[in-house]
Automatic annotation (TrEMBL):
Transmembrane segments: none annotated. Residues 9-160 form the CinA C-terminal domain. It comes from Cryobacterium algoritolerans. The lineage of its organism: Bacteria, Bacillati, Actinomycetota, Actinomycetes, Micrococcales. This is Nicotinamide-nucleotide amidohydrolase family protein. Keywords: Hydrolase. GO terms for molecular function: hydrolase activity. InterPro entries: CinA-like_C, CinA_C. It holds the Pfam family CinA.
Length: 168
């Protein structure tokens, strides 16, 4: 056992125990979050899958993000993250059943700014039921570090969402 418990294994365990499924929509993380989740044995019980929508147009065509929102604000915006999280749940439905939770990552990993946003500007989108939330992050480091930190923060955000929505 390590001094730092495996938070992803704990998340997969919590999702499985609660009978919840999750779908992942990624941009700047390029599949790292889905790979992190499915690294855990038994993840097939709770992970429906993931969509990497790296190009802005794919956020609309694959995930249903509003084209006017993308045109006005670009792909690095809190509402884009929310719409990605909402959209991936239905796009990755199993037998007509949407995933219970959606998580999305969008941001600028660097090294250069994008759309007026500086490297390290990241938004996580979360969705459960008809609700969606965005978590703004300002991360530091090189491209790799920003992407890795985004994955870690996404895992923690889903932990928090599950804990917050547990019945008392």
């Amino acid at each position: 056992m390590t001094a730092f418990p495996d938070r992803t294994a704990a998340l997969v365990g919590a999702l499985t125990a609660a009978g919840l499924t999750i779908a992942v929509a990624e941009s700047l993380t390029g599949g790292l979050l889905a790979a992190e989740l499915i690294r855990i044995p038994g993840a097939s019980f709770c992970v429906n899958g993931g969509v990497v929508a790296y190009q802005t147009e794919l956020k609309h065509t694959l995930l249903g993000v509003d084209t006017e929102l993308l045109a006005e604000h670009g792909p690095v915006h809190p509402e884009v993250a929310i719409q990605m999280a909402l959209g991936v749940r239905t796009r990755l439905a199993i037998a007509g059943r949407a995933a219970d939770l959606g998580i999305a990552t969008t941001g600028v990993a660097g090294p250069d700014p994008q759309g007026g946003q500086v490297p390290g500007t990241v938004f996580l989108g979360l969705s459960r039921g008809g609700d969606g939330w965005a978590i703004p992050l300002i991360l530091a480091g090189d491209r790799s570090a920003i992407r890795e930190q985004t994955v870690a923060r996404a895992v923690e955000a889903v932990h928090t969402l599950i804990a917050r929505s547990r019945p008392e």
